[in-house]
Amino acid sequence: VAALMAVPTPRPLLGALVLHAAHRLGAPVAGYAALVTTPALRRVAHAEVGGMRTGMRYRMASMTKPVTALAVLMARDDGALDLDDAVAMYVPAVDKMRVAKSVDDASHTVEQSPRMTIRHLLTFTSGIGGYNFTWMPNAPAANDVDLRWQIDLYKDLPETASLGDRIDALLVPSRVLYEQPGVKWRYGLSLDVAARVLEVATGKSFGDFVRERLLEPLQMHDTTFLGAALRRDTPPMATVMERKEDTGEYSRVEGGAFVDAVHWTPGGSGLVGTLDDYAKFGALLLRNGSLLAVDGSGGNGKQLVKASTIAEMTTVQFDKMLTIHDGDDGLAGVYWGYGGAVIADSTKMKIPLGFADGDFWWAGVYNTIMVVSKAKQCVVVAGTQLQRMQTLSQMLYYGAVMGFRNA
């Protein structure tokens, strides 16, 4: 792997190299697309393999999270909220949630101290859970607090229930927090709650805020939340596939994918769009918040987001190692900004990925990934549509091979 990364690769061989590397790692990839762009969206490399195209629509899943985080920061810049505001100012139910003394015994609890803030939501240190990782390799069995969060969270709500209805159903006293706010990074539903905070603070629906303040100015015309995406015929939507571990065969996922939000707009998932569109979002981060100049010169134009806000989002805000599940160290050397991860020390990463310290990235469970590299001045966006990624490190490797040696 190290030797592969050390040799500059001709751009025409990009697609073949990625497939070769993926299969050498045993990764379940039938086809996917990838592109690398400059801050001005000039494409310097791309690959389209197995029928996948950069202009197809993909379920972005957790790649919604950086978009949500930036939306909340923009609302902060508008004066609608402060990151150190207590979440209970906007969602009162959160103050009734208590903290487990031990994750193995959810019946013994203490009060929150400190109170949960919006900053805790953006840094995933709120103590909120909600994701089930027992399917991942080497994941431990569910503990007592896990079981409180792994029940059908919205079983008593109609399909058409709003984001507000769902957050009210989520934040109930019986569903205790894993730990005190600010203690530990825990991947879960924090940004769904943040999206509801934004709605209350601004008086505008989360979906409308994202569309008006980010998607439309960036001309991300093919990016919507899933409900709206399913009402459109074009561009084509990539089919979600799954791979049988015993035979290696691929099959279409019938009846929809396992993480779908058709009737509401969660903050942690739900966006559907093209890789071409998402590259526009990544390039906004790389240009420090400015739109492209309208004269077509490729230079910077109107400032959409403060440069200081972009810097805040894409630098380390929580400086403890990220762990997807207890005992996992696959993200060594990686810390958290707001809504995405920051490479803090690339030398500690378990696979030599070719990333540079300071790169900002995140991925989605259907195997999509974005990397914004200020050091290399490029954006890498790649995707396939496989139900559940096999290991996060494999997807990171794809991102490195797809882009950084060819940018």
List keywords for this structure.
407 residues; alpha+beta; 7-stranded antiparallel β-sheet; 3-stranded antiparallel β-sheet; 27% helix; disordered C terminus
What this model shows, in words?
By secondary structure, the protein is of the alpha+beta class. 27% of the residues lie in helices and 17% in strands. The protein has twelve helices and 16 strands. It has helices at residues 2-6, 14-24, 64-77, 118-122, 144-149, 163-170, 190-202, 206-215, 226-229, 275-286, 307-313, 392-404, and strands at residues 32-37, 43-49, 57-59, 99-102, 105-110, 224-225, 241-243, 250-252, 271-274, 290-292, 300-303, 334-336, 341-343, 360-364, 368-373, 378-383. Strands 2-1-16-15-14-13-12 form a seven-stranded antiparallel β-sheet, with helices on both faces. The protein has a three-stranded antiparallel β-sheet with strand order 3-9-6. A two-stranded antiparallel ribbon has the order 4-5. Strand 1 and strand 2 (43-49) form a beta hairpin. Helix 2 runs antiparallel to helix 12 and helix 3 (64-77) runs parallel beside helix 7 (190-202).
How are the SSEs placed, and which strands pair?
Blueprint lengths: L1 H5 L7 H11 L7 E6 L5 E7 L7 E3 L4 H14 L21 E4 L2 E6 L7 H5 L21 H6 L13 H8 L19 H13 L3 H10 L8 E2 H4 L11 E3 L6 E3 L18 E4 H12 L3 E3 L7 E4 L3 H7 L20 E3 L4 E3 L16 E5 L3 E6 L4 E6 L8 H13 L3
Helix pairs in contact: 2-12, 3-7
Radius of gyration: 20 Å
Terminal residue distance: 19 Å
Order of helices and strands: HHEEEHEEHHHHHEHEEEHEEHEEEEEH
Secondary structure: helix percent: 25-40%
User: What is the mean predicted local confidence, pLDDT?
Assistant: 82
Overall 3D shape:
globular
Return the structural class: alpha+beta
Task: Tally the beta strands.
Answer: 16
Given the structure, what is the number of helices?
A: 12
